[in-house]
Every structure is written in C-alpha cells, then in structure tokens.
Design a protein that fits this description.
This protein is of the alpha+beta class. It is built from 11 helices and 10 strands. The protein is 36% helix and 15% strand. The strands form 3 sheets. Strands 1-5-6-3-2-4 form a 6-stranded antiparallel beta sheet, with helices on one face. The chain has a two-stranded antiparallel ribbon with strand order 7-10. Mean pLDDT is 88; it is low at 280-294.
C-alpha cells in the first residue's frame, strides 16, 4: 500500500476517494496557479532536468541517493503519480465526471507524435483554465485540444493506448489532488518515467498491484516482455517461460494486453488477491462494448 493510500485514502486506494477530485479549481487559486505554471513552464523544467539528472547519475552513490530522495520528496508535495490498471480507471471516471482530452506536455516538448492521450479529470469543467495554461501550445490540426469525452469514449481511448503499449497513471497537481490521467512510456517522451526508471529518481509510486504469470498457460512468446514499460519481464532460459522481477514491476497491467493466452493477471501487492472488477465497471473494459472510434 502506497504512502498516499495511508495518508490520504484512510488505508484504501487514494485515487478512488472522491475527496481527491472534489476541489473546485476556479476557487482553489493556489492549485489553479500551480497547474497553469506547470504547463507553461514545462519546457524549461524539462531542459533543466535533462541537464541536471546526468550529473546526479555520475555522483558517488551516497550523494546520488540523497539527491534523488530529496527530489522525490519535493515532487510528492506537488506533482506525483501512480500507475492504475484500466479496470480502476473506469471507477475513476465515475468520480471525476469531467474528462477532457488535451495536448501532452511531454510529447509536445520531446517532439514525439501526440494523438491526444492525456486526459484532464475533474469534478467540474475547467475549460477556461485549460485554455490559459495551453495558450502557447501549437499542436497542429491533427490533435483536438480540449475535446470533452464520455466515460465510454475515455475508456476506448485508454484501451487503444494500452494496445499500443502505453501505461495509465494518475497525477497530482498539489498533492493529493489528482488532475490528470496520462498514457505513456519512455519512448513517448514521458519525463516522469525517464526520471523514475532511467535516473532512479522516482516521481511515481509503484502500483497497488503486481503482475503474475501462469506458468502452465504461458507459451513464452515474449509479447509481454516487449510491452512492459518498466523492463520487469524476461524469458527464463531454463523454462522458456516469462518471469517477473517483483521489485521492478509497477503493476500497471499493460503487459496483459499483449498476451494472447490470458496468462497474466494482476494481484494485490499486499494481499495477493486477484484484481476484481465491479459489475458497474465490467462493461467499460470490454472492447466489444466500446464504440468504434474516439
């Protein structure tokens, strides 16, 4: 169980608590200003990080570890994330009922293709805030800025992202208040994943679940190995089956969409119980129940 679950979720999934999404950003001026500044200044922040992190990587281990820990502690106060399986994203959309597709700051400043994978999630519309924050983003004609999505449309987008090997994660803007679901991997230009995986300066918790492979069902095709955003999966030379590094697994569940044999399940990281889907959310994660396009 992550620190935010204990501190902000009363021992439950913090990202499934309604209070985490309840603040009105038009009234919460401090958080509103932070979100606008975050988007506007993202390019400068990214350049600073690109220059600074290689220096930290080369520092002697005690210094590197302390520096990374201080960076993580600062980010926990402002902008921190956690992978969330698609089943629980469906439950989030029942809480944060205003879902708006918007440009991805990481992809924009990294120069990678953006097909509208980032979602602003709030309990009240924040159109004016988004317009102000993204005013300088020239995203081109092929990306629709600020398209409002229904839950079904949002789930369709998440399923498409997952099929492309992208993980889903929630992100705070002035913790613990969540404002976005991102769908990304390192190749897409995600700065958070690069910091967490490459530079060992985590700005996201490990997910509340961990992947488990059924050795009898797994045929060792390695589709999940290629899809895992965290490099937690490999083929065991002896058994020719997939094995999972529990310490490296972030429990995002992206590996499951690459498995044609349903050999991978998600288990609660603490209890070992399988991830279950409430009846109300079950249809939302079924591709057959989704519209043809978003």
């Amino acid at each position: 169980m992550c620190q935010f679950c204990v501190k902000h979720g009363d021992g439950k999934r913090w990202y499934l608590e309604a209070s985490t999404y309840a603040h009105d950003l038009d009234q919460d001026l401090k958080r509103r200003e932070y979100l606008i500044d975050f988007v506007r200044d993202f390019g400068d922040s990214r350049e600073w990080t690109k220059r600074t992190m290689p220096l930290l990587d080369r520092a002697p281990e005690p210094i590197r570890g302390v520096g990374a820990a201080l960076f993580t502690r600062t980010m926990k106060k402002n902008h921190f994330g956690q992978p969330v399986p698609i089943e629980e994203c469906a439950r989030i959309f029942d809480i944060a009922t205003s879902v708006v597709r918007l440009p991805c700051p990481c992809r924009y400043h990294a120069g990678t293709p953006d097909e509208g994978y980032c979602l602003a999630i709030t309990t009240k519309p924040i159109d004016a805030l988004l317009e102000e924050a993204f005013a300088a983003y020239d995203v081109g004609p092929d990306v629709s800025k600020f398209q409002r999505l229904t839950k079904t449309e949002a789930m369709k987008l998440l399923r498409r992202a997952e099929d492309e090997g992208l993980m889903h994660s929630v992100w705070t803007f002035q913790s613990p208040f969540i404002g976005a679901i991102c769908n990304c991997n390192i190749e897409s230009g995600c700065m958070a994943m690069d910091l967490t995986v490459t530079h060992r300066a985590p700005i996201m918790f490990k997910g509340e679940y961990i992947a488990r492979v059924d050795e009898e069902t797994c045929l060792g095709c390695a589709a999940c190995v290629e899809r895992c955003p965290f490099g937690a999966m490999a083929i065991d030379p002896a058994s020719q089956r997939v094995v999972i590094d529990a310490e490296a697994c972030y429990g995002c569940g992206t590996c499951r969409s690459g498995c044609a044999f349903d050999a991978i399940t998600l288990r609660d990281r603490t209890t070992g119980e399988p991830l279950t889907v409430p009846d109300a959310a079950a249809g939302a994660t079924d591709p057959a129940a989704m519209p043809a396009a978003v």
